[in-house]
Amino acid sequence: MSDGPRDVIRVLVVDDHSVFRLGVKSLLAGARDIEVVGEAADGEEALRMCARLKPDVAIMDLTMDGMDGVVATRRLAEERSETRVLVLTMHEEESYLIPLLEAGASGYIVKSAAGRELVDAIRTVAAGEVFVRPAAAAVLAKGWTRRATRGEAQALYVTLSERERDVLTWFAQGYTSAQIGERLRISPKTVDTYRRRIAEKTGLSERAEYVKLALELGLLSSSR
User: Fold this and answer.
1) Both 110 and 136 in a single domain?
2) Per the domain annotation, does 118 fall within a domain?
3) Closest by alpha carbon to 34, among 131, 126, 116?
4) How far apart are CA 123 and CA 118, in angstroms?
5) Structural domains of the chain, count
6) Would you tell me how many other CB atoms lie within 10 Å of the CB of residue 163?
7) What b-and-e string marks burial along 168-182, b requiring 16 or more CB atoms within 10 Å of the CB?
8) Nearest alpha-carbon partner for 15 in 90, 116, 95
9) Which residues are CB-contacts of 148 (< 8 A; sequence separation ≥ 6)?
10) What does the mean pLDDT of the chain come to?
């Protein structure tokens, strides 16, 4: 058992209802490869506990007092945290799925299905894969369909200045305006100006669209 912890998935449960957190812990108690290492009642507490406990997976509710789950998920992504986020909520996929994945979540499960799917979802996310319910497949297919052929992508790309191309590539790789500015030695506000210019020239606005264009152009490594 001394070497066991390396094989155990460490989980943080984030929800503003203590009874629900207790229910999640009870559901996971029978999974020998999963250990609940902490609980948090809001996004700010979740960020602190992720920094201190370094869980493999944070089961994140969306609607909480104070910092909500979407903001906390985005903050973890911006901080390039090793913790992967599995969103557990009562909301429907159609409204929340794509924005959550764009914010940095690695999976999405509704509370009504938690009893049947939660353990599998945790294992999938901990393994570095994305977990979505089968019912969400059509939503992903519709919302994440590539918006441009390679030829169209090239046509968009040639309209960009060299600095705009740099910003597009870094943003597609998941970096924030502040991080991009540090690398390019410009201010975050200037980075945002370049992003607005990119949006005006290409029609791109969400990070997912930047990623799709960068993939079409071969700007991202296969390790992403």
Assistant:
1) yes
2) yes
3) 126
4) 9
5) 2
6) 14
7) bbbbbbebbbebbbe
8) 90
9) 156, 212, 213, 216
10) 80
pLDDT of residue 21: 92
* Sheet strands (E) in the chain: 9-14, 34-40, 57-60, 84-89, 107-110
Model pLDDT for residues 136-150, shown as the tens digit of each residue: 555 554 554 444 455
Picking from 199, 198, 177, 172, the residue whose alpha carbon sits closest to that of residue 188 is 177
Q: For 31-48, what is each residue's pLDDT tens digit? A: 999 999 999 999 999 999
Name the 3-class secondary structure at 210.
helix
Residue 193: which of 210, 207, 174, 180 has the closest Cα?
180
Whether residue 171 is found in the same domain as residue 106: no
- Which among 76, 30, 71, 70 is positioned nearest to 56, based on CA atoms? 76
Do 58 and 162 fall within a single domain? no
Residues contacting 203, CB < 8 A, separation 6+: none
**57-82 pLDDT per residue, tens:** 999 988 888 888 888 998 998 888 89
Taking a C-beta distance cutoff of 8 angstroms, is the pair 91, 110 a contact?
yes
pTM above 0.85, yes or no: no
Give yes or no: residues 19 and 73 share one domain.
Answer: yes
Q: Please check the confidence at residue 5 and state whether its pLDDT lies above 50.
A: no
- The answer to whether the beta carbons of residues 90 and 112 sit under 8 Å apart is yes
Compute the distance between CA of residue 65 and CA of residue 30 in angstroms, rounded to an integer.
30
